[in-house]
Amino acid sequence: MDNDLILLGHGSGGKLSHRLLSDLVLPILSGVPASGQNDAALITHNGQKFAFTTDSYVVDPIFFPGGNIGSLAVNGTINDIAMMGARPLYMSVGLIMEEGFSRSELKTILDTMREAADKAGVAIVTGDTKVVPRGKADKIFINTSGVGVIEHQLVIGGNRAQPGDKILINGAIGDHGITILAQREGLDLVSDIQSDCAALNDLTFEILKEGEAVHVLRDPTRGGVATTLKEIALQSQVGMILDESSLPYNDAVKGVCAILGLDPLYVANEGKLLLIVAPQAAEAALERMKAHPLGRQSAIIGEVTEDTRGRVEINAISGGTRAVEMLAGEQLPRIC
Amino acid sequence: MDNDLILLGHGSGGKLSHRLLSDLVLPILSGVPASGQNDAALITHNGQKFAFTTDSYVVDPIFFPGGNIGSLAVNGTINDIAMMGARPLYMSVGLIMEEGFSRSELKTILDTMREAADKAGVAIVTGDTKVVPRGKADKIFINTSGVGVIEHQLVIGGNRAQPGDKILINGAIGDHGITILAQREGLDLVSDIQSDCAALNDLTFEILKEGEAVHVLRDPTRGGVATTLKEIALQSQVGMILDESSLPYNDAVKGVCAILGLDPLYVANEGKLLLIVAPQAAEAALERMKAHPLGRQSAIIGEVTEDTRGRVEINAISGGTRAVEMLAGEQLPRIC
């Protein structure tokens, strides 16, 4: 393997991504403490705290059950801001299109973006359009960057998980990734699942009512729940123990994963969040989440343990425990 | 011609781009008055005015005399903010790479980005990395979005040009576009020119000392000086008359354009700004610009006239006048 080449796995959100980030990308960031590796940057201007984030979307196919690349791009960036406990306000849209891409598909995508932004109360305020010759891109890539304001004094971040904290999720795991996979491979058997693509800012607003008990908010997108929890465990220097029987799945996702030999814990989600909260607030947070349309299937899925090496384990339904690691390599390229 | 297809010209910054923007892209923007079509969006939060902008860079080749896709991406976004009269502060970086792209080239590009950002006093605070399979992108595309603060009470914008105003530029026209063209076509004859790629925020800071006399600041990138002035004329509902003999060019650019039949007024610049200023302040502005390292060759190149239809004309050296229109079609794809 030529070590000088960028591999698909470098974009997976897993181990290779982490290494690339540490080696090459993080050194160009300034003013960001390494411990602050979160979904968005925290910036302060004249005493006002802002969250600022960017994401490029290269999902294939661009249309799928439950959304398209446009709704994904809007909701994904809203969620990165929401996971900072911030209120998303403004968004930019950067389009890179391949010559010959369909104007009517573009219109559908842009309409969806406006709709998704309106629904979440976010204004798309600036944009850019580039076109490259046929064969130099694949249909359309969309970058969205966003700015939100932080209107509370809470300190939330991937390095704030504490032993004893409870780990919650707001619903079924793996829907987005399996929907994309099924669409790409033409698997008819899963016609009853769709992407969970959704804006989570209203749900996080509810959760933040738990105040200082809220320690971590993170959306398990690329790399899935497993990679995201492992990241947090390493950042916080804690361990975690998950209870497999409490993990919410839709049957179709379980079925496809069983057939294809995939572990749904590594499959991407686009409308899910992981909440790590002080134990005494866990039940109240769960109730708030269940009362929200995007949290009906919420569950407490595990807890934070004492372990300085960031070990994450799962109590298997079949008995025994197994270790949870970051995604190695690339399971599903171009999932978002 | 199939009207449903996106053409290369839709990314040129010229006529086709404008039509696509008006038809499809601008309708998704909210809270932005149409008259405010500038390089960046103006947003106000708690009385503090910010500029927010995004640009994706797809330049081919990615390395060229005077810079690379990284310095272009950093300086281009800084300039969009600076043209709003804002002080650029924070930037995001979104990378889309093709599988198999060189890690060492990536490192060079990222190092250049950090260097360019440091030089301009801007912090890169957040980023995103995506990888697509070989053949689904061309080496690397970079999105940069940026946030700046507006620390003055001036009203600057493309709709503020007034009859009698003077039009200034800070130096030679067409260097970036011709450098890219020469590099791409292997033209040895132009080995003595290089891209003018540079951050203009320090120069605009000097110019803003002219206070209320400053009406428009705009960087003539895609579509060149001609398209940019035509845009401003339409936005401000004024005319313009340029003096061809006052337009600053480097000899190599003039030579290449003559040989290839290109009009340098339509060629992209990456370190130039057009300033439209009240007549009584023009000489002082010119002196300030000439005193700046990025403005040695500054010149007054024309003036704003009364004409509600946005007519831009040029007094040709050869005698007579000719009309200046927006770039039609695509002259040089992937120039930035």
SSE order and pairing:
2 copies of one chain form a homodimer.
Chain A lengths: L14 H11 L15 E5 L2 E10 L5 E2 L2 E2 H14 L4 E12 L4 H18 L2 E10 L7 E11 L15 E4 L5 H11 L15 H7 L6 E5 L5 H13 L2 E5 L7 H10 L13 E4 L4 H9 L8 E7 L6 E4 L5 E4 L12
Parallel strand pairs in A: 5-6, 10-13
Antiparallel strand pairs in A: 1-2, 2-7, 3-4, 5-7, 8-11, 8-12, 9-11, 10-12, 13-14
Descriptive account of the structure:
The structure is a homodimer of 336-residue chains. Chain A has 336 residues and is α+β, with helices and mostly antiparallel strands. Chain A has two domains: 8-150, 2-Layer Sandwich (60s Ribosomal Protein L30, Chain: A); 166-324, Alpha-Beta Complex (Phosphoribosyl-aminoimidazole Synthetase, Chain A, domain 2), CATH 3.90.650. Chain A has eight helices and 14 strands. Chain A has helices at residues 15-25, 69-82, 103-120, 175-185, 201-207, 224-236, 251-260, 282-290; strands at residues 41-45, 48-57, 63-64, 67-68, 87-98, 123-132, 140-150, 166-169, 214-218, 239-243, 274-277, 299-305, 312-315, 321-324. A seven-stranded mixed sheet of chain A has the order 9-11-8-12-10-13-14, with helices on both faces. The first copy, chain A, has a five-stranded mixed sheet with strand order 1-2-7-5-6, with helices on one face. In chain A, strands 3-4 form a two-stranded antiparallel sheet. In chain A, a hairpin with a 2-residue loop joins strand 3 and strand 4. In chain A, helix 2 (69-82) packs parallel to helix 3 (103-120) and helix 2 packs parallel to helix 5 (201-207). The model of chain A has no long low-confidence stretch (mean pLDDT 93). At the A-B interface, helix 1, strand 1, strand 2, strand 5 and helix 3 of A face helix 1, strand 1, strand 2, strand 5 and helix 3 of B.
